Each structure stands twice: as structure tokens, then as C-alpha cells.
């Protein structure tokens, strides 16, 4: 027979507090939005119009359901004429901890505030155990997403989903034609809709995501909030070499500055890729070496 020590009990209490906090963040945020809207005498329709969101989306938020992007949350705060910090740290039940959080948020510059809000929504807005069952691999072409992701899915007995292929299946049109017909904004809207469906239909999966997803804040936040996201990183020269080794010479065709373009894209996206849960650098690694590291990251 074994007995729990005080230390064991404290650890259990701490875990219980964490789970409780994670499960109450969105309902609390929803109640706060509804309270402020009622206090302002504003209809849901009016707030939705001022914030540029659908009335249905706002209703879901007030009900503590679904996801809300940082940008939309900021728009809602502006429509209600309050700060983002006020929404996240309301005056009701104004404990010392809440006051400290509010002061901390108010001192942050805008770019850091977005990062903090993003991490709060990601880490406490969803059940972490559920989120980690979906493994999303992001990065530029040639990083190893298909090779490593497919192998991980096979060994773990999980479906392997390439989002680009799902987009083509959903539209019945090759990706290049989607861009030609609808442009990049149209493609990104379809990409988000497809990702929402994949998340809804799969509790467990390995998902390979196109490198441009990070340029769309709403879609990227949806991904990060619902998946354990791993950035597969490599040096630009290795990205290019791997793509060409697969027989795809398009990156260099008629473009003497292809490498410079690739470096600029990678440099611009690095801060966004770095928001992933973790990073796996595959530069100079064999497939087996990279795969072993990937498994360790997933199991940790």
C-alpha cells in the first residue's frame, strides 16, 4: 500500500487548477464580451457589424464556443470601445493576479501583445491532450514534411493528410488552377475552410501544411490552436537541392535569382514559423536521423 505525500497532493492540485483554467478561459471571455455589450446597450448585430465579423461568429464567442483569432478579438474590443487587455483581464473578481496581468499587458508594445494573446489562446483555450493528438508539420518545400510526416503516420497508425491535396479534392481543381482562377486570397479562404474540416473530422492525424499558411493570421492561429505544430527547418540551399533532387526544376527555371528569392521568403517567414510549438532542423541530417528526432519531439 502506498500513500500520497503532501508534495504529491500539491502536484495533483496544480494539475487540476491548470485543467480548470484551460476549460474556463473561452467561456469567461465570452461572458465578458456579452457583459460589456449589454452594458454599452449594443445589439449583437451592431457589434458584429462594427467588428467586421458575422453575427453567428460573435454568438459562438459569447457562448464560449469555437475559436477566435487575435485580429478578430482586437476588432471586437475596438467595437466595444475597450482595450484587448480589458477583455482578457476584466475588472470583475479583480484579484491581485488579474491586476498584475492587466498592468503587464498594458505595458507591452503591440507586436508583443499579439504574441502573448496568441499563446494564451493556444495554451489555455483548448484541451492540450486533444491538441497534441493532431501533429502538424510546417515549413518551406524540401523541409521533409511529406517524407517524415508519412513515415510518422504509418508508424503511429494515424492518417497522413496533405492539406494541399485535400484542397484539390475539395475543389476538384489542381492547386495551380485554383490560384489562376481565384488568386491568392481565394486560395487562402479555401485553405482555411479545408483546414477547419480536417480538424473537425480527425481527432488524430499527421498533417502536412503548405509553407504559406503562416502568412494568414486566422488560418495559422486555427492550426496552432488545434495541433501540435512542428516547424521543419533547413538551410535555403538544402531546401532547393531537395526539391530539385525530386525532379522538380521549376524553382530554377528562367529565374537566376531563385535562391535569393528563397532566402528572402525564409527570412520574412522565420518569425512566424518560430511561433510553432517546436522546431526540428533537418539541415545536414539523414532521413533516419531527422525521423528519430521528430519522434522524440512528438513523444516528449
UniProtKB/TrEMBL annotation:
What this protein needs as a cofactor is: Mg(2+)
Q: How is the cofactor bound?
A: Binds 1 Mg(2+) ion per subunit.
Record-listed substrate binding positions: 164, 188, 211, 269
Residue stretches of biased makeup (Basic and acidic residues): 1-18
- Matches recorded under PANTHER family: SHIKIMATE KINASE, SHIKIMATE KINASE 1, CHLOROPLASTIC
Q: Please give the function described in this protein's UniProt entry.
A: Catalyzes the specific phosphorylation of the 3-hydroxyl group of shikimic acid using ATP as a cosubstrate.
**What Gene Ontology cellular-component terms does the record carry?**
cytosol
* Residues annotated to bind ATP: 142-147, 250
Q: Which Pfam families match?
A: HTH_3, SKI
- Please spell out the taxonomic lineage of the organism that makes this protein: Bacteria, Pseudomonadati, Pseudomonadota, Betaproteobacteria, Rhodocyclales
Please state what the protein is called. Shikimate kinase
Q: Give the source species.
A: Aromatoleum aromaticum (strain DSM 19018 / LMG 30748 / EbN1)
Enzyme type, top EC level: transferase
Amino acid at each position: 500500500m502506498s500513500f500520497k505525500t503532501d508534495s504529491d497532493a500539491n502536484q495533483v492540485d496544480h494539475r487540476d487548477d491548470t485543467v480548470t483554467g484551460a476549460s474556463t478561459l473561452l467561456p469567461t471571455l465570452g461572458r465578458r464580451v456579452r457583459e460589456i455589450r449589454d452594458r454599452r446597450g449594443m445589439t449583437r448585430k451592431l457589434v458584429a457589424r462594427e467588428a467586421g465579423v458575422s453575427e453567428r461568429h460573435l454568438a459562438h464567442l459569447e457562448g464560449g464556443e469555437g475559436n477566435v483569432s487575435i485580429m478578430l478579438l482586437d476588432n471586437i474590443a475596438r467595437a466595444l470601445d475597450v482595450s484587448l487587455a480589458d477583455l482578457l483581464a476584466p475588472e470583475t473578481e479583480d484579484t491581485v493576479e488579474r491586476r498584475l496581468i492587466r498592468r503587464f499587458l498594458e505595458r507591452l508594445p503591440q507586436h508583443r501583445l499579439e504574441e502573448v494573446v496568441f499563446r494564451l489562446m493556444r495554451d489555455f483555450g483548448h484541451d492540450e491532450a486533444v491538441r497534441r493528438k493532431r501533429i502538424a508539420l510546417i515549413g518551406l518545400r524540401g523541409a521533409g514534411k511529406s517524407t517524415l510526416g508519412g513515415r510518422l503516420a504509418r508508424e503511429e497508425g494515424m492518417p497522413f493528410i496533405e492539406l494541399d491535396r485535400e484542397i484539390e479534392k475539395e475543389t476538384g481543381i489542381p492547386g495551380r488552377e485554383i490560384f489562376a482562377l481565384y488568386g491568392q486570397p481565394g486560395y487562402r479562404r479555401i485553405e482555411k475552410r479545408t483546414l477547419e474540416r480536417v480538424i473537425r473530422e480527425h481527432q488524430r492525424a499527421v498533417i502536412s501544411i503548405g509553407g504559406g499558411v503562416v502568412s494568414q493570421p486566422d488560418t495559422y492561429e486555427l492550426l496552432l490552436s488545434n495541433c501540435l505544430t512542428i516547424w521543419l527547418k533547413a538551410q535555403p540551399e538544402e531546401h532547393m537541392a531537395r526539391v530539385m533532387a525530386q525532379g522538380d526544376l521549376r524553382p530554377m527555371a528562367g529565374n537566376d535569382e531563385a535562391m535569393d528569392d528563397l532566402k528572402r521568403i525564409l527570412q520574412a517567414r522565420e518569425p512566424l514559423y518560430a511561433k510553432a510549438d517546436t522546431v526540428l532542423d533537418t539541415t545536414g541530417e539523414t532521413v533516419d536521423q531527422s525521423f528519430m528526432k521528430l519522434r522524440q519531439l512528438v513523444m516528449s
